[in-house]
Amino acid sequence: GAVVSQHPSRVICKSGTSVKIECRSLDFQATTMFWYRQFPKKSLMLMATSNEGSKATYEQGVEKDKFLINHASLTLSTLTVTSAHPEDSSFYICSATRGGANGELFFGEGSRLTVL
Amino acid sequence: AQSVTQLDSHVSVSEGTPVLLRCNYSSSYSPSLFWYVQHPNKGLQLLLKYTSAATLVKGINGFEAEFKKSETSFHLTKPSAHMSDAAEYFCVVSENYQLIWGAGTKLIIKP
Lengths: 116, 111
Prior knowledge:
The structure holds two protein chains of two kinds.
Chain A (H helix, E strand, L loop, with lengths): L3 E4 L2 E4 L5 E7 L6 E7 L5 E8 L5 E2 L8 E7 L2 E6 L8 E8 L7 E3 L3 E5 L1
Parallel strand pairs in A: 2-11
Antiparallel strand pairs in A: 1-3, 3-8, 4-5, 4-9, 5-6, 7-8, 9-10, 9-11
Chain B lengths: L2 E4 L3 E5 L4 E3 L1 E4 L5 E7 L5 E7 L5 E3 L5 E5 L4 E6 L8 E9 L2 E4 L3 E6 L1
Parallel strand pairs in B: 2-12
Antiparallel strand pairs in B: 1-4, 3-9, 5-6, 5-10, 7-8, 8-9, 10-11, 10-12
């Protein structure tokens, strides 16, 4: 199956700093990538949908100035958590699809962010 | 409006016994349905998917699910549980990039 790689898998940062998480599709071109946040004991929350070359579409309640998403190429999307605070500590997961309205999603391994 | 309901937040079975994880959905159109599994501290992995072909779908690791339109269900089953099946399982409905996730069911396997 297709491979999606996420980096870093774990990151610890100080409050007020910014952190960038990368999501790469290694063996296919991803027309669309999704970013999720997973809270403890809860399901995934879709944060935003990004299409290559256009602005990301954010879900209601997600601050686009805080969670900057860039999808500069068909194989790379980045999520930058700006001015991170302890409440931003979470497990962030990306997924990618090759296309099609109901295309299969391929998930990254996830990135655990801890803000001190 | 689309929705997904996983009827059990936790399911506990003994090793070697059958597994049933229940999922009901509501959808305006003909949806695609997926089951994903997430092992502790790991990413999500697709178990199986239904995309309007055969209603009984076979997935990896011996899991299968049956799409029942009349019951709007897509329950996940496995004849015999293994310790390595302990994980969280998510039922997902997909329509035109709208992904609706169930809350997840944690599967516990007793030795």
